[in-house]
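Thought: the user wants the 3D structure for the chain below. I'll pass the sequence to the structure tool as-is, report back what it returns, then summarize two notable features.
Action: structure_tool
Action Input:
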Amino acid sequence: MTTKINRNRDLSIWEALIPVAALIIMLGFNVYVYGDEALSGSNQFVLLLGAAVAALVGFFNKVSFDRMIEEVAENIKATVGAILILLMVGALAGTWLVSGIIPSMIYYGLQILSPAIFLPATVIICSIISIATGSSWTTSATVGIALIGVGGALGFDLGMVAGAVISGAYFGDKLSPMSDTTNLAPAMAGTDLFTHIRYMTLTTIPTYIITMILFIVLGLSVDIKGDVNIASLLTDIEASFTISLWLFLVPVIVIGLIIKKTEPLIALLFGTLLAGIFAILFQPHIINQIAGVEHMTFQSAYKGVMDSITGKVVIPTENGTLVALFTSGGMQKMLGTIWLIICAMVFGGIMDAIGALSRISHALLKLAHTTFGLFASTVGSCLALNITASDQYLAIVVPGKMFAKAYEDKGLAPENLSRTLEDAGTVTSVLIPWNTCGAYQSGTLGVSTIDYLPYAFFNILSPFMTLIFAAFDIKIRQLVIEIKKNN
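Observation:
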């Protein structure tokens, strides 16, 4: 991924912060007014208003409109892959519902996962899948959706379940050698992949252990609506779908393709089409319901599968608990998330064009007088870029470029920087509603960022853990020691 950052020497730190402050104030008020409905469109427009404020700052500093539009175009171009994946995730979710894959996962999950162990088990399952695939996005789009269904059926708050899914997914994403961010961070810092992964375990494993303890305590203490009748749920699922272990072939094949380094977009497309075939074979009655016919023909089968891919599908059930689980929005459901990403890229593009991102990063770098100050400045820069640039990759690339020389000057090995980029840049992106990662996870799991944020323990704790290690000089590797070892 080619990423550049524009510099504007005339821009003061206060001018650079004006659009950020305006955006935070406007978003805060908008969420206060609209609540959970803020992502339905008003937040998107607020991002455009924030971009307008940034543009005014740019005009004042003689940045041309054409330059700003050019940067916006570059930003949006960089998200094309993410947008296509979002559309394919919507399609996948639709066919995985009507084929009975997700209902089968819920059916067997309800029998295996008791409420007491459900939350920590969710973290572990998502961790394993994410390490294997190298992708938090794929993890959420496959087992994550199913676990949300199981958790909802058990009576858990969906914010808790989504927090457990995201915690496990990002743990695996951080440590998997197949993850793009795990490869990007050491490349920016100037170290090698496996040195980076080994060094990253020093902060990641303690954070993961604390996360597991928190979810174990939460699972044992939370009130999960004791009136949920599991037997009734299983009966109603069986009444609506043909449940079979054969249906698990589809997710196994998709995950296998990802492990074999097949492009995620291709793997998700294959999983969507294969699930469509399984829907015709295993759930012909549901395909007929969607198509509005009594007897299946080639045309009605095509219509039933295509409708599940592109639009909203509701499988009839008299069980109120299962209504939400038996509903899918298809590709259409993802349009709001895509809209949010595009508007966020407009804001980030103009912020980059006027030199605000560069100015904020340089200001943070000037605060790095001590080793702890350097780590804290890196963390702050990653968080600031996740908020302002709305992009996980920029939150790794820009601080990586900015701070590499500073770490070297202080005699710190480059893996200190690469680890901090992951601890603060990779995992916090999902906590920002308008960041591409936050928008994706919210749209995929069907849970708002604000609802899952308090329970994304791994993501919240990671930047604090890296700061604790820096403050107490725990396992801070010195560059001079590494040089002596090499000699």
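Final Answer: Structure generated. Residues 193-221 form the longest helix (29 residues). Strands lie at 313-314, 327-328.
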